[in-house]
Amino acid sequence: MGSYFAIVTCRNSEANIERALLSLKAQTVKPAYVIVIDDGSRDRTPEMLKRLQAGWPDLHVITNPDLGYDIARVVSNWNKALTYARQNGLPATDYHMISADDVVYEKDYVEKLMRRMDLGEIAVASGNYGEHGAVTPHGAGRLVSNRFFEKRHGLYPEKMGYESLVLHTAVQQGYSCAVFDDARFEHVRPLGSNHHFYEFGASMKTLGYHPLFVLGRFALYFATGRPIGRLGALYMLYYYLSYRPKDTGYNSMHDSDVRRFIRRHQLKRIKSRLGVA
Prior knowledge:
Elements: E1 4-10, H1 17-25, E2 34-39, H2 45-54, E3 59-64, H3 73-87, E4 95-100, E5 103-105, H4 109-117, E6 122-128, E7 142-145, H5 146-152, H6 162-172, E8 176-187, H7 198-206, H8 211-224, H9 229-242, H10 256-274
Parallel strand pairs: 1-2, 1-4, 2-3, 6-8
Antiparallel strand pairs: 4-7, 5-8, 6-7
Helix pairs in contact: 7-9, 8-9
């Protein structure tokens, strides 16, 4: 069985953070260590983390100053955790796990993923929650092969669409990505409870998604109402059509070679579905 460490981001998480961390600690395959990035919490989260650390030597905490909420800091915080592990000589592992302050896992969640991933063909995998029937790995709950990740990325690209990009580059490198529905977790805060899916559509633009692929996904989401609801589907399509990427930074386009690969791969999938040679 392989080894892994977990990255958990949080902010003002006193209601959920202890339960989320203890579900990681209780895994049948335990993480070698857990790195929490507290993004400037102003509630009791820092005190709760200190109390948990007292009885958990493999729990590490990075504390950011309070700069207000900014979704763009999520990926930079993941990179802070990866850099912290390297700079502090923490053990190298086979995988890293992306988690969050509102996610609780069944006890054998990681074991179920790792038994399949240890075969070497899958670069990124997750379980599932609710009735969403996802076909691509989720952000929280995903397990990432470090053999693939270190060779291809090293750090997450600090641009919107960073989660999807890693899935596409895994396929580009000959790996697969998978969702295993028998590995279950719970989001305490339901997806879509507090945002309008701005990045869903805008990142499709920055990643170079093929228009026909976007329209097909919109039709599916709108028809089924899952996983983001019909209003979320409308927001997604609107921002894909209207978004104007910036020249640099978090809101800029991804590399042209990756965009070309994504568009070709999506067009190939569309043709396959339609039975077109």
